[in-house]
Amino acid sequence: MRFALLLVALVGAFAGWVQMESGIKVTGRTHPAWVDHGVPDPSETHHVVFALKHDAAKLKELDRIFWEVSDPRHKNYGKYLTFEESNRLMAAPQAHIDIVGQYLTTFGVSGKLNPNQDMITADIPVATLEKMLNTKLGKYERLLDKETLIRASQAYYLPEEVAACVDIVGNLLDFPNWGQPRIVEVGAVGNWPNYCGTPCSGKITPQVIQQQYNSTNYTPSNPKNSVAVAEFQGQEYDSSDLNMFTSACGLPTETVNPKLGNPPNNGADCAAGGCVESLLDLEFMHGIAPHDLVVNDYWLSSYSILDWINDVLADVNASLVHSVSYGNDESQQSSTQYMLTCNTQFQAAATRGLSLLFASGDQGVWGREGHNGHFNPDFPAGSPYITAVGGSDLDGTTIGSPEICCQDSGGGFSITFAQPSYQTSAVAGYLSNPSANLPPSNLYNSSGRAYPDISAIFGLYIPYCIAESGRWVGVAGTSASCPVVAGIIANLNNVQLNAGKPQMGFLNPWLYQTLAAHPDAFYDITQGCNNGGSGACFTAIAGWDPCSGVGRPIQGNMQKYLP
Fold first, then answer.
1. Tag placement on the chain: N or C end, fewer CB within 10 Å?
2. Which CATH homologous superfamily contains domain 211-561?
3. pTM for the whole thing?
4. To the nearest whole number, what is the mean pLDDT of the chain?
């Protein structure tokens, strides 16, 4: 039908409408982490993103470029796209942009087209949005911290002509289900100097990580180098805690640059526990990466991986390394199409030479869903287009002690995504090794994308020490492992850039190729099992395994084999 007739379709309940994100996996009425909080005010605005369908030929070209620039063995390795080149490649067909834009205009809504020209964002009153999407919206409160959000309480629809141009409308069905890093009140005590003063005695500090991982902090940093963390919702930080940490640990003062707007910087909120995640990320990113780097903070007021990657790609000066300590089970994502839409954007980031690192999760193989008859892989950690960071733990109380796979480290095989070629050999070696003592085959998909890719200390045995709310606390989680590995990658980028070479970009092809040719680049973790404390699991063995990945970094050795 012609656009002028679109409004006619609105009077018929579902005549001419197409349900979006069919195969919905979760709704607010059934999500265990959220409870119904009534209906929103009809005039309250809600931020949504219309992710436009791409041209099939352009998606094929994106995939080709992605693999070529990410493979150290390819002649085009490191020949990343510029911001402008990426925008041209990712642009949706103009007809799709026009139809969706006109649909918004019909309702008096002004949308904003992103630089990639494949997403239109808009802040729309609830009453208007319900009419546009033929749905009902509800308000939901998270049990963890009383945060509220607006989501669709039922399926949503678009008229046929508009639906043909849109993959999903983001921020309607997805429910965050992440938790804070674990506070470890009682843990083992390391036998090393009090690098950050008496309150951190025996806990993991940046100096412990640097010695354990043979990590050299390169300063001054190359001017092209940059790092970032991602934070969402109530996660804040306060300068007093950052200064307390850097002063006690003998580090330069940390500068944080809020990329997307200023997150709250409120000591009272930190005292209520709203800063543990962000302070852990910021303090250890600064402590491991080149100390003179500004740490960019991509902070969003609501949790949305799709919004986050859209904002990253819209940044002409996007940070080269991103540490993201957030994720949910694949089964908790709103739909497969939501994950596919994110994946396309992850590939686009890699073609620009960006390294995206995601924590693998803190519930072992069973995920947040728990023991429900099968393992529950994580997303985005299970995406083939990012680097998943798992968690290990010291098997001793001295620096240089071996490490074992932490029982709570997320790992396994994606149910949704096929196994990428960069890891097939390593995974086949694991699956055929009698030492693996594999769990029952009905619990996992052995042909899926396997993760994690690499690991670092989790902190369950000896916790990390952070400054938070004017006190010193011990914390644990892959939320710590991820910024540690990201900081090491930033150091490697410094080596590359100073040598006139391109930054590392998407890391996985290099990681697995290096493991095969130069296994001494990593410390091989051969003990441990990620069962989350009970039940079946994947066992760490010699070589790659879905408990610890390629092992943990040895930065000094990794530098020898840079592409």
1. N
2. Peptidase S8/S53 domain (3.40.50.200)
3. 0.94
4. 91
